[in-house]
Fold this protein.
Amino acid sequence: MKLPRKLFVIAGLSVSVLVGIAAVRPGNPPDDKFINLKVLPKNISSKELSEIMVDEFQDDLGVSCNFCHAENKDTHRPDYANDEKPEKQIARYMMRVTIGINKKYFKLHRPMIGDSTLQITCGTCHHGQAHPDNTTTQ
Ligand code: HEC
Ligand code: HEC
């Protein structure tokens, strides 16, 4: 028995439409809570984000969270999504630079901060200091 070719084409199309819908669905709802990510993936998990903030940013620069993050004036609690502090903006710029170096000079395919394959990280230049050019303290 020979099924019409058209049927296969239609069946194939609906599979790719379904796959397409699955691909654009947002990340896991429980992790989908960061509201102001411009460089990191918006659906990053809390675990991955906190590893970056603690291991890469805090430790590699030798600073605390409030070096980059402003506090809420009323609650006096950190307001992580707030972009008021220039240090946070510089950090974002540095993230883009770091990604760019890994891509351009080390030919990594779509590198992202936090990847274990990165050849250059914040720590490569910062060595636990916010100001890597401050040679007098080394
Ligand atoms: C060197 C600067 C720097 C330090 C230190 C730092 N962060 Fe961040 N943080 C950033 C930047 C930049 C972003 C935004 C990243 C982006 O746009 O993709 C961010 C984003 C975040 C977010 C997501 C906010 C949102 O909803 O968009 C959280 C939560 C956060 N940081 C927590 C922390 C904690 C907790 C610490 C201390 C352990 C910390 N950060 C230390 C620079 C820093
Ligand atoms: C290629 C080297 C290099 C890399 C990689 C790098 N930085 Fe920097 N960063 C510097 C230099 C140089 C300065 C300027 C220091 C100064 O002016 O005292 C700086 C300054 C900064 C400052 C401003 C400090 C201040 O007090 O004004 C922040 C914040 C910062 N970097 C965050 C980061 C973060 C976060 C990463 C990783 C995503 C990173 N940097 C990766 C070289 C680098």
Remarks:
- Confidence is low (pLDDT under 50) at residues 13-29.
